[in-house]
Amino acid sequence: MVSTQTYEFLSRYWSFNSRIHGARHWAHVACLGRKLAEQNDLDGASLRCINAFGWTHDLWRTHDGSGNEHAQDGGIHFLNLDCDLIQQLSEAEQQLVARAIRYHSDGYIACEAYDLGLFDGIDLPEQWVIDTVGCCWDADRLDLNRLGSEPKAELMSTEYWLCLVKASKNLNSNLKENQIL
């Protein structure tokens, strides 16, 4: 998760108070991403990338509507964050998370995005990139149930996402309105 200091640092970047794209959602994405990573036997570096994605992917939203402007902005601004959440990542991992943020709302699955060259120039192993980004994007999509929607199978990147549908519903039903993880 994140330290109180990091949470307070990130809060300075929130441009509006969202009930559906705010800290509770970010905590859910980080938690679900961690569970997906565990199912996929991913390493600590993947977990750090997934956690950073979870807590920052919607940080630059200015409204709760559709669109991907926040993702484009987030992909740029992520690299300028100066906190422990980002500093613990290598330069290549920072680039990976920035691009995962940039493309998270474009409807890609991780292997398709990789094949399209969206992660070109990042010096990390192909399967590691696909698995890590897949966990990021699936975790975000798994939390759609907070809006009354189910994730679409054709937009999921990992084979274990179905195992976490119930867990994602529990995250949203068991927490009080203003509580985060």
Summarize, please.
The protein is 54% helix and 0% strand.
CA radius of gyration = 15 Å
Order of helices and strands: HHHHHHHHH
Which segments are poorly predicted (pLDDT under 50) over 5 or more consecutive residues?
Answer: 176-181
Count of discrete alpha- or pi-helical segments spanning 4 or more residues = 9
Distance between the termini: 8 Å
| Largest sheet composition | none
DSSP strand tally: 0
Helix content: 40-55%
Structural class, by secondary structure, is mainly alpha
Shape: globular
Instruction: Name the beta content range.
Output: under 5%
Mean pLDDT across residues:
88
Which SSEs are present, and which pair or pack?
Blueprint lengths: L3 H8 L11 H17 L4 H13 L12 H9 L6 H4 L3 H13 L6 H6 L10 H17 L22 H10 L7
